[in-house]
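Lest this sound abstract, we think one record worth quoting, the chain in one-letter code, the fold tokenised, each line plainly labelled:

>
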Amino acid sequence: MENLDVARIFNEVADLLEIQGANTFRIRAYRAAARTLETLPTPVAALVAAQPEALEELPGIGADLASKIVTIVKTGRLPLLRELSRKTPATLTALMRIPGLGPKRARLIFDTLGVKTLPQLEKAARAGRLREVKGLGPALEQTILRGLGQEKAHAARVRIDQAEAYVRPLLEHLHGAPGIRSLEVAGSYRRRRETVGDIDLLVCSTRPAPIAERFVSSPGVRQVTARGDTRCAVVLTSGLQVDLRIVPPRSYGAALYYFTGSKAHNIAVRRLAVKRHLKINEYGVFRGSRQIAGKTEAEVFRTVGLPWIPPELREDRGEIDAARDGRLPRLVELEDIRGDLQMHTVHTDGHETVEAMARACRARGYRYLAITDHTKAVRVAGGLSPAGFRALFRDIERAQKAVPDITIFKSAEVDILEDGSLDLDEATLAELDVVLVSVHSKFNLSRAAMTRRILKALAHPRVHILGHPTGRLIGRREPYAVDIEAIVAAARDRGVLLEINAQPERLDLNDTYVRMARDAGVKLVISTDAHRIDELAFMRYGVDQARRGWCARGDIANTRTVDAFRRLLRR
């Protein structure tokens, strides 16, 4: 069992408990445990085998949940899930994830109309039958139809962090095969897209047979769909398809380039090759029948008069012209980051103390961090009153004395209320070093109303950062309707920083909006929105997103020194 498999079971339990109207704290306990497992760097199966008592020391996991993890790892099942499924049709969990539904409405539609599956839900919505259910109307019907379309679009893809969790053990296993000179993951995974449809592995070797054999016999393989000396394909137990190609050294660079894509980028480069009477494919670069390049990617680019282009930029969005003209940016690196500007602690919905987060940030080499616990409107997160913030500030001052070699900014994630006002009084706002504002409610406002709401918040003179600006959750909730061009323009004019939220389920802003903001001259910050220490590692996903948006170091505010960052805040 992989960590994500155990986490999936816990999330299914939480879904069924929610449908049945169980205690909120019990539901949150299972979701918190699932979140811990999703970010756990150690394979949970290894802990069960060698040190099961260590499970109880993980955030949000006590003796009861630890014993359930042991059961899942050893048997592949959880009796509680089976028991809950007998009481509640499992198909209801798929219904409740559709935007606009949720557990209560999903149950209502199931009980009233007998709708059990997503196709049945779509049929009922298109026939106007949902309006027969008390409390549902035409507007919600359209919301559900849009949500069903989104579900179809996301069904065949997995988030980049989830793909990594499944690919990592596969790579570790494959490295044990003899004769591997190089091993890379290509495709959209290498381009660091936020979701991937499948995985392309590329191996450089002159001894393909033992590598192919080891690949198809990897743990976690559910089905072998192709098997040969140079190409194999499998489906993992998670449903993720993985293709392996084994190529000789003379073709490795060409194959890596070809299978990295994107398709549009490759077509554009091949056009350049045709003008030079060359042919580029996965085997190399050819003039007639003679191979003239292909050992490295740099060779391939050189044959068409281009420098090497970073994989994140290979989307045919102007990178070829920029490369030819010497205008490619030197992209930001993870090592450039000097601080993290959104995280939560035990004062609201985090799992760590202020001091623990400060020490963890210092261990990552950061020079500053912002503690951004929630304001009172976010009740589900235990948002703070002004008195609660005063207690938090005292805790920050104690932590600052205990960890003096990193700057801890007093901050808050201040909710933007429906009318655009801020969910914190002026006196408390004045005490904050960094004011980050976000939308957490009323996502269904019209585009005009949502835009007015956010613009009013950005006009507040104390606001420094707009957090997760479009509110999306990948695969679960689409961005709310908003005029992003107007938001970018206001951020530029008022000196407000826009956040790239590095949570893999958010990655908000998306890459095209990051590019838009960067091109408009807006400065961005990359923040992890961490609720526990392990989530500080999400920073790399935010950096990936910034790179896909063409950001250099200077475009990202938290690459600056603490003094330079303070100056940037004085707009």
